[in-house]
Design brief:
79% of the residues lie in helices and 5% in strands. With 273 residues, it is mainly alpha-helical. The protein has two domains: 2-110, Helix Hairpins; 112-272, Delta-Endotoxin, domain 1. Helix 2 crosses helix 3 (50-64), helix 5 (117-148) runs antiparallel to helix 6 (154-173) and helix 5 (117-148) packs parallel to helix 7 (182-212). It is elongated. The mean pLDDT is 82.
C-alpha cells in the first residue's frame, strides 16, 4: 500500500502539501495570538496585526525548514504545534528527495533499455544463430540415439534451448526501440523475421523427432518460449506497419511475417499433440 502511494504521488503534489502545511501552521500561530501569547519575537510577544502575520509566516517557514534562527521562538501550545509542523515538513522533504531519486533511477533504467532498432535486431539475430547451432547439435545426438536408444539428458537440453529462445526474444521485447533510419530498420526487420522463422522450424523438427522416439519433453518451457515468440511477432507487425517503405521491400517482409504465422501455428500443433 505504501509503495503504491509513493509511486502515485508526484513532485508537484508533495510541494503543494509542504506549502499547504506551512500556510496552515502560519494561520494557526497567528490565530492563537488573538487568544494568548504563542510566539516571542526578539523577546516580545507576537502582535495581532500585519507585522504579526508576517512573523507567523516567517516562524512557520523556519520551523518547516528546521532552521531556527533564535530570534523567534514558540511558547505555550505553540511549542507542540511547532513540533508537529517540523515532523510533518521533514517527512515531506524526505518524501520529496526519495521521489527525485526514484525518478532519476527510472530515467537511468530507461536509458539502459534504450536501443536502436538495428542494435536490438542484430543482438537477437546473433543469439538465434547460437540457438540454431545448439539445436543442430541436439538433433545430431537424437539421430545417433536411434541406435543406442539412451534418452539421458535430452529433455534438459531441450529446456535449455527453449530458455535460450525465450531470453533472446524477451530482450528485444522489453527494449525501448528507437528508429533512426526507417529503410535500414526495415532491412533488419526482414533479417530478424527470417531468423525467427528458421529457429522455430528447427525447434519444430526437434519436437517431431522427440515424439518419434517417444522421448518425454517439457511442454511448459516450450509453451513459454512460444508465448514470447507471439509477443515478438506482434511487435514486428507494429514495426512493419510503421516502417513500410518501397513496395518490393514491404512485400518481402510481409511474406516473411506470413511465414512466421505459419511456423508458429506448426509449433502450437506440436505442443498440443
Amino acid at each position: 500500500m505504501k509503495t503504491e502511494v509513493f509511486e502515485r504521488i508526484t513532485i508537484k503534489q508533495i510541494a503543494t502539501y509542504w506549502i499547504s502545511n506551512v500556510a496552515l501552521f502560519s494561520a494557526l500561530y497567528y490565530g492563537l495570538s488573538f487568544v494568548s501569547a504563542t510566539i516571542l519575537h526578539n523577546g516580545q510577544t507576537l502582535n495581532s496585526n500585519i507585522e504579526g502575520l508576517g512573523n507567523s509566516i516567517y516562524f512557520s517557514f523556519t520551523t518547516a525548514l528546521t532552521l531556527g534562527y533564535g530570534n523567534i521562538a514558540p511558547i505555550g501550545i505553540a511549542k507542540a504545534l511547532a513540533v508537529i509542523e517540523a515532523i510533518g515538513s521533514v517527512s515531506l522533504i524526505g518524501l520529496f528527495i526519495g521521489k527525485l531519486v526514484s525518478i532519476k533511477q527510472e530515467q537511468i533504467l530507461e536509458e539502459i533499455k534504450e536501443l536502436s532498432f538495428e542494435e536490438a535486431t542484430h543482438k537477437v539475430i546473433t543469439e538465434l544463430y547460437l540457438f540454431r547451432n545448439q539445436a543442430k547439435e541436439l538433433q545430431e545426438k537424437l539421430s545417433k540415439n536411434k541406435k543406442t536408444k539412451k534418452h539421458t539428458g535430452f529433455t534438459k537440453e531441450l529446456d535449455i534451448l527453449n530458455l535460450t529462445l525465450f531470453d533472446a526474444l524477451q530482450t528485444f521485447n522489453e527494449s525501448k526501440i528507437i528508429v533512426h533510419d526507417p529503410q535500414k530498420s526495415m532491412m533488419h526487420l526482414s533479417l530478424m523475421t527470417n531468423s525467427i522463422n528458421h529457429s522455430l522450424s528447427r525447434l519444430v523438427e526437434l519436437l517431431v523427432e522427440f515424439n518419434k522416439q517417444k522421448i518425454g519433453w517439457n511442454k511448459e518451457s516450450t509453451t513459454t518460449a512460444l508465448a514470447e515468440t507471439v509477443r515478438t511477432k506482434e511487435i514486428l507487425i507494429q514495426s512493419f506497419e510503421r516502417l513500410k517503405s518501397d513496395e518490393q521491400t514491404s512485400r518481402i517482409v510481409g511474406e516473411k511475417l506470413e511465414d512466421l504465422n505459419k511456423v508458429i501455428a506448426e509449433l502450437q500443433k506440436s505442443i498440443q499433440k
